[in-house]
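Notebook B, p. 112. Complex prediction, attempt 2.
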Amino acid sequence: MGEPDLARLMLEASRSVGAEVVANLDERGFPDARPGHAAVFMHIDRRSGTRLTDLARRARMTKQGMMLLVDDLENRGYVRRVPDPEDARAKVVRLTARGRRYVAEARRAVAAVEARARRELGDRRYEALRGALEELIEARGLSAEV
Amino acid sequence: MGEPDLARLMLEASRSVGAEVVANLDERGFPDARPGHAAVFMHIDRRSGTRLTDLARRARMTKQGMMLLVDDLENRGYVRRVPDPEDARAKVVRLTARGRRYVAEARRAVAAVEARARRELGDRRYEALRGALEELIEARGLSAEV
DNA sequence: GCCGATGGTCGATCACGTTGACGGAACGAC
DNA sequence: GTCGTTCCGTCAACGTGATCGACCATCGGC
C-alpha cells in the first residue's frame, strides 16, 4: 500500500496545476495572484459586475467564502463593491480597470496551463480526465448547490 | 467561460471523495476521522512504527506538516511517540491497539470508496484518471520530494 | 402593514498545509 | 576527542480555502 489514495492524488494535482497558473500570472505582471481568485474571475460579468450571492452560487461555495475572496480582491484593487440600483440590499461586485486586465491575463494563464496539460495527456485523455472529475463530483452531490 | 478551471475541478473532486471516505469511517465507528489522516495511515508501518521524518517523506510533505497530523492522532489516542532505540534523536510513531483498528478500517473505507468510483467510471476510465493525475503531478515536479 | 425570504456582513472555527528558526543528538574527519 | 555538519523533532507564525451560526436591512407577496 504505497500509492496515495485517490483524494490525495487529486489534491496534489490540483495544487500543482494551481501553482503553475499562479506562477504564470506572476510572469505576466500579477505577482499577488492566488488560485482561489479563479472562483471570482471565471464567473464575474466583465462589464456589468455580479452580485456576491450570484458569484457564490456560480462558484458553488458559500457567500461567506466568496466574501473572503471578494474582500481580498477589493483590498488589492481589482474589484469594488457598488450598490445595486435595483435592490438596496445588494451590492454589485464590479471589476476596476486593473481588475479587467487581471481577469484577461488570468484567463489566458489558465488557458495556457490547461493547453499544456492537454498536450501532455493528449486530447482524448485530457477530456476524459475532466469528464471523470465531473462525474465524481456529480455522483456525490455538489456541496453548496441550490 | 462557465466551466470551472482544471485545478478547481480536481480540488472539488478531491473534497467530495475525501468527505465520502470520512463519512464511511464515521459509519464504521470512527467519527473523528479526517481526510488528512490518510497521509499517516497509508504510510506507517503497522507493527514497528515509523519515524516522523520518514512519514513526511513518504507522504511528500514537510516534517512540520506531518507533525501536526501526528499530534492530532496522538491526542485522539491512535498513535504514540516512543524513543527510537537506534537513534536518540529520533522518535518512532507507533500505532496503539486502537490505532491499528483505525488503520484497518480506514484502509477498508478508502478501498470501498475507490471501488465505488471505479464502478461509476469503469475500470478503464478509473485507471486513466489515476494515470493522468500522476502525470500532471510528475510533469510539474513534486513539492516536498528528495 | 406584516412576515418570510433574500443579500450582505461579522465572528468564530476548521482542515491542511507552508517557511523560518532552533536545540539536541549523531556522525565523520582530523 | 573535539569540531563542524547533518539530521530529528519541535515551536511559532502565517497562508489558503473554506465552513457554520448569528444578525440586520431590505424586498415582496399577502
